[in-house]
Design a protein that fits this description.
The protein contains 15 helices and 25 strands. By secondary structure, it is an alpha/beta fold. The strands form six sheets. The protein has a nine-stranded mixed beta sheet. Helix 10 links the parallel strand 11 and strand 12.
Amino acid sequence: MSRNLYALFQSRFPKDLSAPCLMDANGVGISYGALDEKTAKMAGCLLGLGVKKGDRVAVQADKSQEAVVLYLACLRAGAVYLPLNTAYTADELDYFLSDATPVIVVCDPKMEAALKPIVTHNKLSHLLTLDGDGLGSLMAAFEKAVSKNEICEVEGDELAAILYTSGTTGRSKGAMLSHDNLSSNAEVLHKYWGWVEGDVLLHALPIFHVHGLFVALHCALMNGSAMWFLPKFDPAVICKLLPKSTVMMGVPTFYTRLLDYDGFKADICKNMRLFISGSAPLLEETFNHFKSKIGMSILERYGMTEAGMITSNPLNGARVAGTVGYPLPGVRARLRDENGLPVSEGEPGVLEITGPNVFKGYWQMPEKTAEEFSKDGFFITGDIATIANDGRIAIVGRAKDLIISGGYNVYPKEIELIIDDVAGVKESAVIGLSHPDFGEAVFAVIVKDGTIDIDAAGVKDCIQGKLAMFKQPKSIVFVDELPRNTMGKVQKKTLREIYAKLFK
């Protein structure tokens, strides 16, 4: 039997294929039957363009119903889907495309001119366009395609997707996710979060990210549910659709913005059974404010690119602010110290996990993959956690030098390398500081080399086209020297303490 993830979704589609699947805010969209037909035709389009089983298809396009069709068509055809953040610049994309060597690159028409030389230089076969309205040269090719109704036979451990994560060395790593990785997580979440007939998902997340693409979309497809499929988060639109929805998934920023919006009141949430938060820590203050205002507790869960969802607060039972709940069924979790030894009971340690959801490794990086796994096969997450006597997990820090801003992972080293190349900069240190809207904001501390006079605006201008906006510092300060320990290592903890209240 095929282990193709699309075959699993197809087996869960509603009996009445005229039932709505993807809808815009006005209720216009496509049914499950139309989705199945369009994915078959798009699969035929990909095959006609020379895509073979295992080939990569890279996509940097705005959220649209057609983008979902493209993703599912890649699964049908046995291709490997490579979603790329729409904020990435051409400089950043050059690395991903040269590393993954996709057969097809799909981009927004506005990026086509910038990507043409990159595609040519890397000898990639096709550059096609797709915009947020579902138009572009990809759809022109789609219209001429012949449908491929058969679903490609795959083994469970064959790749379904590669998602790039930033690295502590500045070099991004492509996390390889198999059909079994994704299907096991989808099945567990569908059951654990109690999806029922008639559920309607409010989907305002981006779909280049695990949260929107795999967690939200997969749960709805597994349930044959209708989705309000919105291009972005807009509190006014969300509040209009909440009475017609039952489940919403969001990042903490969604909930802080809803709480600040006058139209967000308890009475419009009467039909809602579940609000889920993830991708960044949910502040206790937000959790408590939401509960007092709406009368419902947000369900916080924890996951990462390399494993999908790992833990969740319970559907039925106490949802404790500041915790991420329990390991999901099939997941084993443990804590280790920096030497890989068990920590004392009640002490924090580095969270290590194993389970069917854990990825296969990093694309073309066997040595890096080996570093990230323990000798007995546990993935070392890099997050510092505590595990209570009842198994409930709380994330209390990060061993890896990571910033989570607006739900997106940002590694300081990548930014530091680019800032350090700016004329007049001697060295820099990038940290994350608490921010009321983004959770954490990127902040840079710079030491000048004295060769030329530079200021914050000048530094920002120099890095503008080299880093996605979400990676660029929200604020920059200049100092005479960075704090260091006796071994000469920059003390970022000291910097975080000095500037802790900058954005408050």
